[in-house]
Amino acid sequence: MTAYATEAPTAWTAACPSARLRPDDGVAVLLPGGRQAALFRTRTGLYAVDNIDPFTGAAVLSRGIVGDRAGEPTVASPLLKNVFSLRTGLSLDDPAVRLDTWPVHDDGTTVRIGTEGTP
Amino acid sequence: MEELVVIGNGMVGHRLVEALRDRGGDGRWRVTVVGEEPRSAYDRVALSSYFDGATAQDLSLGDLAGPGVRVRVGERATSLDRGARTVTTTGGTLSYDRLVLATGSAPFVPPVPGHDLPGCHVYRTIEDLDAITAAARAGARTGVVVGGGLLGLEAANALRLLGLRAHVVELAPHLMPAQVDEGGGALLAGLVRDLGVQVHTGAASTAVEAGPDGRAARLRLADGTHLDTDLVVFSVGIRPRDELARAAGIAVGERGGVVVDDTCTTSDPRIHAVGEVACHRGTVYGLIAPGNAMAEVLADRLLGGRATFTGADTSTKLKLLGVDVASFGDAHGRTPRCLDVVVNDAATGRYAKLVLSDDASTLLGGVLVGDAAAYASLRPLVGSPIPGHPLALIAPQGEPVGADALPDTAQVCSCNAVTKGDLVRAIGEGCHDVPALKACTRAGTSCGSCVPVLKRLLDKEGIAQSKALCEHFTHSRAELLEIVRATGTTTFSALIDAHGTGTGCDLCKPAVASILASLGNGHILEGEQATLQDTNDRHLANMQRNGTYSVVPRIPGGEITPDRLIVIGEVARDFGLYTKITGGQRIDLFGARLEQLPAIWTRLVEAGFESGHAYGKSLRTVKSCVGTTWCRYGVQDSVGLAIRLEERYRGLRSPHKLKSAVSGCARECAEARSKDFGIIATDHGWNLYVGGNGGFTPRHADLLASDLDEAALIRCIDRFLMFYIRTADRLQRTAAWIEAMDGGLDHLREVVVEDSLGIAADLEAAMDRHVATYTDEWAAVLADPDKLARFQSFANAPDTPDPTIAFTTTRDQPVPVGLGMPSLRTREDAR
Predict the structure, then answer these.
(1) pTM for the model
(2) Is B486 among the domain residues?
(3) Is the CB of B543 less than 8 angstroms away from the CB of A78?
(4) Does position B418 have pLDDT exceeding 70, yes or no?
């Protein structure tokens, strides 16, 4: 399954074994270059967004609760509960704030995050 | 600025200054309040709660002093010079442009021989109550109250609460002659006698006689008999404190009271009078509601308004010795040719009378004794046509009168003179729940008896009191709990598929997680449940602002051995944790990274600790003072009880956090009354208080039950907590839950103490299951590799710590750096 690449990534980072990422759950993934992704599996797909909550500066989004707002898949920051779209990374509380997103691929054995080409 | 001097700092004087301030009068008047009591204004209506655990602080109406308002307590006005426009007090001389007499009244002591002997008391001020308490503590066994009116019965209850045998002696043929008719008075006497108070009606007191020690020892009655007693409380009536006005030549009424017109102005246009000192159209009102109405009228007038006071409703509803008594309108049936409809049910202890117009179409007044639930809906109907048959309104299963039946002019809240029209307008202007209506109109903020009508008005105005948890569930938390219980659902996905929409969110998931945990569904990190948990529950520790956690080892009751204290210190040192003592008698260790938590817990578990719930909607701590273990004042083992309670209720998931404390004596050093459930030792056992909290809206807990032994206390708390868990809304603290409950604290007491719903055994069984299945949640994580996998920094680099976390040193300890303060508006702020 592939999610939301606007152009094909040129490199993939292995995040975890497929079985490790359970439905409606998230994990933090360390990307090449030191950035961190929050990787989620929901009922609607796989998503990777920046792990750093822009409202607090803390790397905690992988520990947030996933769900939806009017059908839009979301994660809520565990700190001040700001909610972000998992699809677009946009803050649903403040449209000026947006998380970076990365494409995700699960081949049934390993979940990978596309780290070059986007964003 | 003009000078306004208010003589008297009682409830009405206080209300006047508040009303001026609310109307923006602080720019026009510089106010000086002079009060002779040694403290600022307090709630005299609730005075008897002083014997039921309330303190002088609880009764206080708050400090008026502020910009433009000076309050001089402990200072008595002694004379008035109307020519010079000055008032002389025991503290100096004050000039005024306008003067307000709010001096209230004094108890009337009949001039029988011996009325001034030592051992004779009155019942009006906190000092009077202290004197009665001191006499009781000095060994008094029996007390006689002269006067069987409202205050006399309150005084009798006070004597009873102080452990004295109480007698009430009333001159009239029945109790409460001013409010209640003979039938109601007779039933009331029966109910009061059942409580152990001896009632003597039609009895004239002729003398108080001294014993050998010169103190009051017996009360002589006109029929030649006497009552042996250790103290006498006179409560036969009140007299207006009009002496200042009399001496200054201001007009007073035939039977006392400073004569005022409809603007609350006396015969001197610069001098006003309000409250119990005022005599309006020949009437001196001894109730708070007319006093408040006068204060509002005068405040309006002082700012150039046109308000008038044209008389007031003397309806009252109160609970005396646990007996509901209410009277309203023409309770005595003085209207010519009026008709009575009476239900006098000695079997259930209920008396109800309606007074109707001669054609039985219009309600004129009524009396309710034993059950005054109908008061809130009947009183506003006075002067209106009655809906349906009158008997239906007071029959035991009578339906509450619909809000529709009330005319717009009907006063729904008589304490604060708020009409149905005022409330409907406020609802139209956006007050969409009871708290908003209370804040905006003041309705329901005094005696609270009209709150059920406020709810019905909201319903009628089509304000759906939405209890929907969030966009995914239309149900309230309590409804979802019942669904989960009835269907045996054990997962969130099954619940949302069957009863909700979408995939859930950060509101409904933790709420359902809490419900599943409250009903006992294994470890909270088991399977899907882990993904539902709110921030702290998700990793069983408190997440701090930089994403690290704090760990708070459980220290039940705050009792800890030196060796265990050293273990905590060693763990903090070895993991480099910032250390701070909490307000809950524990030690908080900050700055643990997610991946360090298991290692920290391992060390704690080895030393016999469990990491504690300093987080989550669950029991936090049970604080204690040292009680009889050490304290020379302690009367019970507060530490032992606190430990047993904390161990019983630990891990209990609830709609909001739960805090508790146990104090070993009435000095209350554990601050139990600021807790959701607080326990205070008495000579005979334990008093249980519920519904207290600190935080944004601090509130003292109210007494639920007294003098319980430990087994009864625990049953009571079991029922209270389980009833709360089953019926409260999400994030509704116990105080708000009780306030929102129909019938409030009284209803809660019926359910929890008297088992009026017949569910006590079920609630107890549910708590027993919780206690039997409790396990150390942290030790369980250490034993399960699946759960341990949740405690990794990165799924692809578990040995690499989060590089964004950094610490600096402040006051010799590590604190987070580099993140700055959150600067954007959050959702919680926006709510």
Answers:
(1) 0.59
(2) yes
(3) yes
(4) yes
